[in-house]
């Protein structure tokens, strides 16, 4: 796939009409349709300050750009030396040397069972799931935690690109393991940073959930991208061309504020090559993605005062028919938690975003990290 250009008529027209204005506050409201999630977003700049003024009023942590790793925090079971206080370990990186017990081996990343799982791996998998109507199935599934660093004071974006790449490859390895379990249909990888984003532990970690069903939102996303493909012959993510929403790019990935971003300063990191499954990532691309992810998280932390955020990897369900692959393109979504959905959003499932994507992208491009 070529680098984003200004050749897409729909995006270019919207971008040029928006960017011609000197500031968000001088623009009229606009309603945009998201061609990936099939939802409408209202851009209402009158409801906000200038894009450059956005800051989180409740930082997720104390920003620490040059942390001095502390071997352990007494109350944190994710810290090095406290492995026995966690739920069972699934694997660690690097693997322990032959003849050395796991607890005694040094590690950089640990994948463990969640001590308080939403789903339980010891239940019987459902034999079938009804297509329609109310139903209840056993709460079978997998819920794991990826401890991204042994050190309590280190955030993910403090790590070198190579080590962030190793975290991404740990996701890949665990997804492959879950793929081999025939009852798992979809795997969701996500990270919550900050209490208001859902993180119950301050130590840098992410989570992996393996489900015996494909969530409705995933099916809706595939239906939406199929509709775009049937109409245009193109993948909706491959067809992103506007330079106005581009933040940065590397050899294998580019980062954008999506054309119809549901959230202020939302970021998508998209593979240049059309790839349906995240777990097809190789080492070279993992390091490349690690570097771009690091930069995007640094920019958000610096510009928005270390906001609480979530990131989510949107990949294809397992066992997807070959005919679906041309319009299924994985990507990573980063959502800073700067506002709270209220009655309108809950009732209509339309989002109100006070920052035009072109303005957010411009601000983020200019953040020097």
UniProtKB/TrEMBL annotation:
Q: What is this protein called?
A: ADP-glucose phosphorylase
Q: List the Gene3D superfamilies hit by this protein, alphabetically.
A: HIT-like (3.30.428.10)
InterPro entries recorded: ADP-glucose_phosphorylase, GalP_UDPtransf1, GalP_Utransf_N, HIT-like_sf
How is the cofactor bound, in the record's words? Binds 1 zinc ion per subunit.
- Chain ranges of the Galactose-1-phosphate uridyl transferase N-terminal domain: 140-215
Residues reported to bind Zn(2+): 76, 79, 152, 203
Which stretches of sequence are listed as region Disordered? 1-31, 49-76
Q: Where is the composition biased (Pro residues)?
A: 62-74
Single Gene Ontology BP term?
Answer: positive regulation of cellular response to phosphate starvation
Which cofactor does this sequence's record say it needs?
Answer: Zn(2+)
Entry keywords, A to Z = Carbohydrate metabolism, Metal-binding, Nucleotidyltransferase, Transferase, Zinc
Question: So which domain of life are we looking at?
Answer: Eukaryota
Composition bias type Low complexity, residue spans: 1-28
Q: Which GO terms describe its molecular function?
A: ADP binding; UDP-glucose:hexose-1-phosphate uridylyltransferase activity; zinc ion binding
Annotated catalytic residues: 205 (tele-ump-histidine intermediate)
């Amino acid at each position: 796939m070529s680098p984003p250009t200004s050749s897409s008529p729909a995006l270019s027209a919207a971008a040029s009409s928006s960017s011609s204005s000197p500031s968000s506050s001088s623009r009229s409201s606009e309603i945009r349709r998201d061609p990936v999630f099939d939802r409408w977003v209202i851009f209402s700049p009158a409801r906000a300050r200038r894009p450059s003024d956005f800051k989180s009023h409740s930082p997720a942590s104390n920003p620490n750009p040059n942390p001095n790793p502390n071997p352990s925090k007494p109350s944190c079971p994710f810290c090095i030396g406290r492995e026995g206080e966690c739920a069972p370990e699934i694997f660690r990186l690097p693997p322990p040397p032959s003849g050395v017990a796991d607890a005694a081996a040094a590690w950089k990343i640990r994948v463990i069972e969640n001590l308080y799982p939403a789903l339980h791996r010891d239940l019987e998998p459902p034999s079938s799931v009804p297509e329609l109507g109310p139903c209840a199935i056993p709460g079978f599934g997998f819920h794991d935690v990826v401890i991204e660093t042994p050190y309590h004071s280190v955030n993910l974006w403090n790590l070198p690109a190579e080590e962030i790449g190793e975290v991404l490859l740990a996701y890949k390895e665990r997804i492959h393991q879950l793929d081999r379990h025939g009852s798992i249909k979809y795997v969701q990888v996500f990270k919550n940073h900050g209490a208001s984003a859902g993180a119950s532990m301050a130590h840098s970690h992410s989570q992996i959930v393996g489900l015996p069903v494909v969530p409705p939102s995933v099916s809706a996303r595939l239906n939406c991208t199929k509709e775009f493909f049937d109409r245009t012959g193109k993948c909706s993510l491959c067809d992103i061309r506007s330079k106005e929403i581009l933040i940065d790019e590397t050899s294998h990935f580019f980062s954008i504020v999506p054309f119809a971003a549901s959230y202020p300063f939302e970021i998508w990191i998209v593979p240049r090559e059309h790839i349906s499954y995240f777990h097809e990532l190789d080492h070279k691309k993992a390091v490349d993605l690690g570097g771009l992810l690091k930069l995007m998280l640094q920019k958000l932390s610096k510009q928005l005062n270390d906001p609480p955020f979530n990131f989510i990897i949107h990949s294809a369900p397992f066992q997807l028919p070959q005919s679906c692959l041309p319009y299924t393109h994985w990507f990573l979504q980063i959502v800073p938690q700067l506002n709270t959905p209220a009655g309108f959003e809950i009732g209509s499932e339309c989002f109100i975003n006070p920052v035009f994507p072109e303005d957010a992208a411009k601000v983020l491009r200019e953040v020097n990290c």
